[in-house]
Amino acid sequence: MTMHKQDTLLILDMHAVDTLLGMDEVSEAVTEAFVLHSRAQGRVFPVIREPLHMGGVFGIKAGDVASQDLLGYKAAGFWPGNRQQGGEPHQATVMLFDPATGRPYCLLDGNAITTLRTGAAGGLGLARLARQDSASLALFGAGVQAAIQLRFALRTLPHLKRVRYMTFDGKPDAAFERRFDGQVDLRHAVDGDAAVAESDVVITATPGAKVLFRAESVRPGTHVTAVGSDTKGKRELPEGLLPRARVYVDDAAQSRQIGELQWAPDTACVEIGAVLDGAQAGRSEDPAEITVFDMTGIALQDLTVARMLYRRASQEGVGVVIPWPWRSVG
Question: Which EC number(s) does the record attach to this protein (predicted)?
Answer without folding.
Answer: 4.3.1.12
